[in-house]
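note to self: dont lose this again. the chain is below, predicted strucutre after it. 423 aa total, dont forget to put it in the shared folder this time
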Amino acid sequence: MNAPDDDLLDTSDFYLFVKTNSKLFPPQIQPGPSDPTKGTKFILAGNTTTKSQCAVLISAPIACQRAPGSLQFKYWLYNEAKIEVLILKLSTRRNRLRIILRPHTECYFIRAFNDRCKVEIPEITEPFRIGIRAHGLKDSALGSLVMITDIEYKAEICLEPKLSKIFGAQTIPPSFVTSYPITAAELSCIDYNTTCRWSNSLSSLAEWKIGWNRQRWKEIFETESKPTGSFFYQYVDSITQKPYSLLQSELVPCTSTVTTFAFRYWLQAGTQVQVCTVTASNVIISCVYLNEIAMPGPISIDIDVPTEEPFRFVFELINFDHSTFGLVVIDDMQFIGLLCHEITIPPTTTIDPLQIKQLFALQPYPNLLIDSIPTLNCDFNRNTCPQWENDGHWLLGTIPYDDSMMSSSSIKGTNFYRNFLNF
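---
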């Protein structure tokens, strides 16, 4: 296909040309054969302008090339037109072509008769396209042109980018759940397991995956902070076609309290991600954009008003730096709050009277009054405070050392004197 015009590498186009007779090409058109058969198809780029023009033919996207490969094709040049092979990355920013590599190309007018343009292409570890560029197209009097046919590319290529499975190859299974969550806690996913109610929104080359391998973590994110256990991640690059899959929760049926959704995240530089709440029909309610500066968080999103309408959370990668790749990692997702049908039982704060004697190790308080003690101060730790008279309803107890009772550690083991009525 023709590359988009960028007014730098590409200012013109190639056109399809079919030889409709058996005439020989004139000797000024070299070095391809002069007698192609009738019906032979070529692509042709030419111009008659004073200013030099150029045209780039680009291949389909290639994920990567595992080993050295080769490109060859028949070509014809006329009137100082030139040709070269480029390894390109097509950027969506300003419609520009970015050159990754210029392989050595010796494809000139003065070559052996019937010569084929042959170019060696080294191993390429990132997504790319091959470009064949015709340039030097000018001359208002005679014009100039380039013709190409019989393109052959031989190489061992990747069927998918090498980094697409950098943290693990397990795709998040589709959701087969047909019932709403029973509790808000079911929407939490600290470490992935089969009970996590999160899934891909669609099947695509840019699905969310489950990761666990962190060997190249610092190289990619340039940070020491890492997820714990397994995590969710999504990788996209310039050859990944939209739409990208969304990471989505099951529908939240309704809430009865203020709810909070919290998580940690990591972004490759230039990757833009948003987390949204959407209705059951995928109408956006609200969104929050994730900030590279604030990562890894945790970030907490509050839903202030209880709702009776079902909704879900979705993570969406919306853009990335097309000169590299896009990568997002999500971990430690927690949903805190109450669904509208959840029944809560407030914790009891009353101690069972039948357990009081055992809990506090209660003992009879000696009824021995001593009048000669010069002070009434008493904390019951040194003695039983005989300067205070017992009327028969008081017992001596001790604060437990264990956690049988919620109390300050500073008073555990302390003796006390307490009146228990009707004990």
